[in-house]
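=== RUN LOG ===
request id: a7f3
mode: sequence -> structure
chains: 1
length: 707
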Amino acid sequence: MTTVLIVAAAAPKQPAVLIEALERFRSRGARVTVACFFDSAELPVDPALAEVRSFVVPPEKRDARLRRALGRAQANRKIWLHAQRHAWLRQRFRSADLLVALDPRSVYTVWEMAQRNTRAGAHYGLVPAQRALDVPRTEPVGKRLERQVAAAAGIGTRGARRAAVETVRTTVQKATGQRIMSNPAGAWFWSRAVAAPRVPDRLRSKLAVRLHDSAVKAGRPAVAARTAAAAVSRINSATARADVLTKAAQGELALGHVPSGLHDAIRAQLALADARLAKDPKKAAAAVSRAWSLASNRVLHFDRLSSPMSDDPGAFLAPFRASAAARKLSEPRGRLTPAAPTPTDRPLRLLVTTLINDNFLQEILERYRAMPNVEVRFLDLYEDPVTRPLALSGSTVMEHLLGVESTYGAKIEEWLRPHLDWADTVFVDWCQATAALFTLHDPGTARIIVRLHSFEAFNFWPHLVDFSRVDDVVFVSEHLKDLSAAVLPQLTGERAPRLWVVDNAMDLRRYPRAKPADARFTLGLVGFSSVAKDPRWAIDVLRKLREHDERYNLTLIGSNFNNRTSKPATDYGRRLAKDLAELEPLGAVRRYGQTDDVPGALQEVGVILSTSVRESFHCGLVEGAASGAVPVVRDWPFFAGKPHGARTLFPADWMVDTPAEAAERILAVTATEQAWTEAGRAASEHVLKTWDWAVTQTDYDRLLLGG
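=== RESULT ===
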C-alpha cells in the first residue's frame, strides 16, 4: 500500500478540492495522512479518507532552544522547526512514499522531509501528486545512492553553516549587548571600533544600530549618541547615514525616550528628500514621510506630560522649514476664482465633512438641517469602502504634492469634484486628511472652512493642506489658535485664510440636575483614557483630600486607560493601575465606565476636575460645571505661562497650579453644603450663559451663513 503525507500550512480555502483528491487517493489504494500547521478541527475530513493531525508544538512544550530558533527563523522555516520536533510527524514523513505540499508555505517543509526520506517522491500540489501515484517511480540503484549521499551532505552542510552563523551572531550579540555597553571599557572599545577605517557601510550601519540600542537600554544615552555619531561620520552613503540615524531614533522612541539624535535623523531624511526631489520625487516623498513619521511620533507629543512642539514650535520644526521638499508640500497654489458670495435666490448648500469622527457635529447638523434656507449634506470620507483607502495614506498625498506621476490625483478629483461643484460652503471638521484632500485640487467657487481641534497641531496632516485654497480656519480657543499659527506659517501672511475662534457646539441645558447632598465629596473626571488627561494628577488630589476627610472619593467617567499606544503609555498605565488597585477596594475610586448618559453620571459628582496637560477646550469639564459641580482646573502645562491658556479661558477662581492648591480649593468650597451648592450654581450659570448652544449658535451662523 502506498502511503501519502500531505503537509498544509493553512486551512484550504476550498476544502472540497482536497476532499475530492483524498477520495481519488483512496480509490487507488493509498493511505493518506494530512499534517496541519493549524487547528485540525478547521479541516473536517472523514477519518476513512485520511488521518488529520496538527503538528504545532504547544507553547508550554517549547524549550528555550526551540523558542530562540522560532524567534530568528523566517516564516516558512518556522513550519519545519515545528515539524522536526513532532515525533508523530517524523515517523510519518520518514516512512511515506509520497510527500505533498498543499500550499506555498509548506513547500520548504516538504523539501526538508524529502532530504531525509530520499526514496519518497516530493510534489507541490494535489494534481502532480495524483499523477505521480499513477506512474510508479523507478530509479537506478546507483542514482538513488548518489541522491541519498547528496541529501545527507546537504543536511550536514546546511547544519554546519547555520551553526557557524549562529555562533558568530550569538558572539556579536553578547559582545555588543546591554551589559557590555553599560561597562565604560566596553563602551570605549565599541565607540572606536564602530568608526574603524575600511569597514563596509552595510556592516558598520548594522553594528552602529545594535550598539546604539544596547547603550540606550543600558541607560547610557550619551554613549549611544557618541557611538552613532562616530559610525555616521565614517559612512559614505547618505542613504545609509540617514538609515542609521533613523533606526537609532526609532529605537529610542520605542523605549519611550525623546531621542537625543532626533533632529539629526530628521535632517538626514530631509537632505535625502531634497537631493532626490528633481529626479526621483517618489523617493523624495518617502524620505519626507519618514521625517514626519519621526517628528509626529506620539511618544513626543501625546504619551508624555510635555511636548517639544508646544515648548518651541519654531525650533522643533526648523528642519522642515529649511527643506525644499518639505516646503513644497504646503506650497500655496491659490485658487482660480474666489469663493462665490452667499446665494440670495436659493437655499445655501452646506457640505459638512469629516473622517470617522463626527463627535462635535451633531448640534451643527441638527440646526442647519432644520433651516429652510439651508440645504445640508454630510460626507464621512471613511464610509465608502471603495474610496476609503484614498483618505488613509499620507505618504500617497505627499507623493502627489511632490510631483509623482500617478492616478491618485485624478481619483481624488473624480471623488470630490461633484461635492465641490454642488456646495456653496464646505465645512471640514478636523484639519487632517479631509482638509488635505479638499485642497488637493482647485475648489472652484466653493467656500472652504476648516476647523482645527487640537491633536492636528502635533501631526503632519496640516502641513499637507493648501491654506491658500482655504477661506476660513476655525479654532475652539485662543491658545489653540496661537499654537497653530506658530506651527503653521501658512496661517499668517498675505494669502492666509481668515482665522476664527468659535466655541464648541454643546447643548448644556440637559446637564443641570438636582444633586444629592453627599455629592459634594465626590470628585469627577470625564475622560481618562490617555496620558494627556493625566488621571494620576486627580489621584494625587484625592490622596491629599483623604488626609483630611475619608469621605472624599473620585468617579472616573469614560473608557478605561489605553496603555497599548506606546511604552510611556504602558508605564503610565501600570502606575495608574497600582493606584486604582489600592484605592478602589477602599471605595475611594469608582470607575463609572463609558456611558451615553453623561448628565446622569454627573448627577452624583460634586466637584469636576480638569487635570489634563493639554486641552483645546475640555468639553467634559464644562459639562460637569453645567451640571452644578464645582470646577477645579489645572493650568494646562502645555499652555501655562503663555498669552492664552486655561487661565484666560476660565474664571480665575477655577484655576490651580498644583494638586495641593486643588485640594485647598476643594476643601474650601465643600466645607459646608451651602458653600458647595452656591459655588456649583454660580459655575453652572456661567457656563450656560457663555458656552451653551443657545448662545454660541449665532457665532456659527456668522461663520457658515455670513459668507
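=== NOTES ===
Residues 141-175 form the longest helix (35 residues).
The chain has four domains: 3-138, 175-319, 348-501, 517-691.
=== END ===
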